[in-house]
Amino acid sequence: MAAPIVVFDIETIPDARAVRAAGLADAGLDDTAAIAQARQRRLDATGSDFLPIVCQRVVVVSCIFRESSKGLKVHSFVDRGDQEASVVQGFFRLIDRHEPQLVSWNGGGFDLPVLHYRAMVHGVQASKYWDMGEDDRDYKWNNYISRYHSRHLDLMDLLALYQARANAGMDTLAQLCGLPGKLGMDGSQVYEAWQRGELEAIRRYCETDVLNTYLLYCRFQLMRGGLAPQEHADEVELVRRTVGEWGASEPHWAEYMQAWS
What is the dihedral of CA 125, 129, 132, 138, to 10 degrees? Predict the structure, then answer.
């Protein structure tokens, strides 16, 4: 039986404790002021106020779960207040339990390194994820860690042939393939949305991103011969039907379907 597919994406905000530990803010500042100072220093130094990966903390992990016998499901792990450890543990527990095919867009360059550091901070356990053949010999030749193995498929990295200069944004490629692309916000707006208490808007944005990524993964499988044309058409129809049902209770899915016309 084929492994289930889990497409994932995370949303992060700056971590004041990490900013202080990295020496990016002066001692004595409160969290908001420390983050503001670190972002300004980063902007002055690099032209971007985005802080290093080790200074990020996770607020949302969204997953599309596709299993042949159970259809398509969406689930988000959300930090609703001092719950980051549970969010990160929940994601890695999903991997330990189901051993899925992981799919991401730039997951190797951002999402997974963030999750690694935050798992270390919180003492999260992820034995199957970190197995590189020590416990299961099959994982020596195909594991989640090695860049050129397929158990985690970073679509952006693969399509660019592992050349950073060839990387493409998910939003751009999604639109070129006839998908809605990003809805509501982009990653640069997440921290400000979180400051305003708009956690549900962040969750909804993250969920539509993972759906875009899943549909790009399906298009990739069509291109590489993993799906025949009719199989691809059937899968897209399943997604349309399922997301249409989700739209009855969640407005962002109705918006997604309206954009995907």
Answer: 130
3-state secondary structure of 83: coil
Q: 137 and 86 in contact (C-beta within 8 Å)? A: no
- Cα separation of 5 and 66, whole Å? 5
What does the mean pLDDT of the chain come to?
A: 95
> By residue range, what is the domain housing residue 79?
5-259
pLDDT band at 27, cuts 50/70/90? confident
**Contact status, residue 122 vs residue 79, Cβ threshold 8 Å:** no
pLDDT confidence of residue 186: 83
User: What's the whole-number mean pLDDT along residues 53-57?
Assistant: 98
Kindly report the CATH number assigned to the domain that includes residue 112. Answer: 3.30.420.10
List, in order, residues 6 or more apart from 67 with CB less than 8 Å away.
Answer: 4, 5
* E strand or H helix at 57: strand 56-67
Residue 1 is predicted with a pLDDT of 47
Stretch 14-29: mean pLDDT, rounded? Answer: 95
Asked whether 172 and 152 are in contact (CB, 8 A), the reply is: no
Q: How many domains does the chain have?
A: 1
Q: How far is residue 95 from each of residues 100, 130, 227, measured CA to CA in Å?
A: 6, 10, 24
* Spatial CB neighbours of 222, under 8 Å, sequence gap ≥ 6: 229, 232
Tens of pLDDT, residue by residue over 119-155, are: 999 999 999 999 999 999 999 999 999 999 999 999 9
Residues 6+ apart with CB under 8 A from 241: none
Nearest to 129 by CA among 175, 172, 95: 95
Query: Please, where are the H alpha helices in the chain?
Result: 16-21, 31-46, 84-98, 112-122, 138-141, 155-159, 170-176, 190-195, 199-224, 229-246, 251-259
